[in-house]
């Protein structure tokens, strides 16, 4: 059985909820990331959301807001999705498909230990499986 831990990017860069979006963009650039988990100010190991590069552009810059004034917490929406490290890859696929998300944090012993991205998925699926995944995640 291939698990979420087997296919994820190990390690996790976090950004606190109170940090500004320009700081999030700088961290993404410096670490070559497209998303950062956002930590709860009361518990830095507790995820309260995820901020993506697209969120910064579409929900901040495109509306004329200043990324140096908006915080990551301003853009966090909904319940963060995640998967247990020991879960089968098929469970990760179902979670990503059902919520139409492109990145999925991987948690072990209540701590985030990595992230599964589309690239990670692509490396472990057949062409047919990958096509089905893309269709479901990107469906309107």
From TrEMBL:
Pfam families found in the cross-reference section: CBS
Alphabetical list of InterPro entries matching this protein: CBS_dom, CBS_dom_sf, Diverse_CBS-Domain
UniProt cross-references to PROSITE patterns, sorted A to Z: CBS
Keyword Hydrolase belongs to the record: no
Source taxon at top rank: Bacteria
Signal peptide residues on this chain, from the entry's feature table: none
CBS domain: residues covered: 8-67, 70-132
Keyword Metal-binding found: no
Alphabetized UniProt keyword annotations: CBS domain
PANTHER family documented for this protein: CBS DOMAIN-CONTAINING PROTEIN, CBS DOMAIN-CONTAINING PROTEIN CBSX3, MITOCHONDRIAL
Protein name (database record): CBS domain-containing protein
UniProt source species: Streptomyces roseochromogenus subsp. oscitans DS 12.976
High-level lineage: Bacteria, Bacillati, Actinomycetota, Actinomycetes, Kitasatosporales
């Amino acid at each position: 059985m291939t698990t979420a831990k087997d296919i994820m990017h190990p390690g996790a860069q976090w950004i606190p909820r109170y940090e500004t979006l320009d700081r999030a963009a700088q961290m993404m650039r410096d670490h070559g990331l497209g998303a950062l988990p956002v930590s709860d100010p009361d518990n830095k190991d507790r995820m309260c959301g995820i901020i993506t590069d697209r969120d910064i552009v579409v929900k901040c810059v495109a509306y004329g807001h200043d990324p140096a004034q908006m915080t990551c917490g301003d853009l966090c929406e909904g319940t963060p999705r995640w998967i247990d490290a020991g879960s089968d890859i098929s469970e990760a696929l179902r979670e990503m498909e059902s919520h139409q998300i492109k990145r999925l944090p991987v948690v072990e012993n209540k701590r985030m230990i990595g992230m599964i991205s589309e690239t990670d998925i692509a490396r472990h699926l057949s062409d047919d499986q990958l096509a089905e995944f893309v269709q479901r995640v990107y469906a309107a």
